[in-house]
Amino acid sequence: MAESATTSHRIVVPPAVPMVGLLGTGDEYLRTVERAFPQLDLHARGNEITVTGPAAEVALVERLLDELVVVLRTGAPLSVDSVERSIQMLRVDAAERPADVLTADILSGRGRAIRPKTLNQKRYVDAIDKHTITFGIGPAGTGKTYLAVAKAVQALQSKQVSRIILTRPAVEAGERLGFLPGTLYEKIDPYLRPLYDALRDMLDQETVPRLITDGVIEVAPLAYMRGRSLNSAFIILDEAQNTSPEQMKMFLTRLGFDSKIVVTGDVTQIDLPVGTSSGLKVVQQILDGLRDVHFCWLTSADVVRHRLVSDIVDAYGRWDAARNAEVGPRGVRGRR
Residues 269, 238: contact at Cβ < 8 Å? Predict the structure, then answer.
């Protein structure tokens, strides 16, 4: 068949692009490509790369190298991870180019840039730009909260909003935080620490406390949102799987003029008492199809933590699926 015909193609890398940047130290990026395309034979010499093998695979590698060259020309660095993710994007044949994903800066500063690393992450941040309310739903490590906080800081710095509001349900304390010792921030600190960490990763250490003191950034438990109307704000509800349907409704109806809401959560990690419905699950049925509301789903393929995290997420997914298949609707094992 024509698709399996062997061909050879010589790719000339522009002189302005350093080969070590394209191939990696010790040719580690080239080795990554070879592992992903075992049917191909790749040879690099000077500023030329010769690719031999099935025509379709050769064409895909040619597209890959073109994309990596574009990334390097923008000044963005490559890594084994970004090369692997570029290959994944090209294999799904999506409309978006890997170079567009890997060079989409959200924030730049402190010696580095924050940008999406996967196709779904790029679609997620684009959805935040286009819609008033965006839901980011996916497993741990997919960057849904981190990217939302980055978009909030970007909106604040560009004066699209005048304040950032970050909130989470304090499930373990039943949101009865008044019984805990200390100030409000000392009481809620264990629940909101991940949001503080994300802020401090994007802003100067001295800036975050000052903005919180001035009321420009507010970090508070979900219970403190009741009865408010939030105008000119970028509002993030994190860990939304631990809201009840009533809490979710309360939160969404806080939306004021010139504001934007991002809701993040993982429906596989619900910590609510047995018998309590998750507001994040219910809201998908209620708001699906509503104009200016968008749902983004991230998967284990979008995990940007340690490589093993993605495998762990998939393993738990298979375990849950097998357990649900064995347990009937009343919680008893079905007959085999």
Answer: no
Q: Choose from 131-135, 267-271, 319-323 the range with maximum mean pLDDT.
A: 131-135
Taking the C-alpha atoms of residue 128 and residue 110, their distance in angstroms, rounded to an integer, is 24
Give Cβ neighbours of residue 32 (< 8 Å, ≥ 6 apart).
24, 80, 83, 84
Burial class (CB in 10 A: 0-12, 13-18, 19+), 224: middle
C-alpha torsion sign, points 61, 65, 71, 74: negative
Quote the CA–CA distance of 22 and 42 in Å, as a whole number. Answer: 14
Residue 56 CA to residue 284 CA, distance in Å, equals: 40
The DSSP line for 112-134 is EEE---SHHHHHHHHHHHH-SEE
Q: Which amino acid appears at position 221 of this protein?
A: P
> What is the Cα Rg of the chain in Å?
23
* pTM of the predicted model as reported, rounded to 2 decimal places: 0.81
Enumerate the β-bridge partners of residue 293: 133
- The 41-45 sheet, strands edge to edge: 6-12, 48-54, 41-45
The predicted-structure confidence for 65-85, as pLDDT tens digits, reads as follows 999 999 999 888 899 999 999
- What percentage of the chain has pLDDT greater than the value 70? 86
Q: What angle do CA 306, 308, 311 make, to 5 degrees?
A: 135
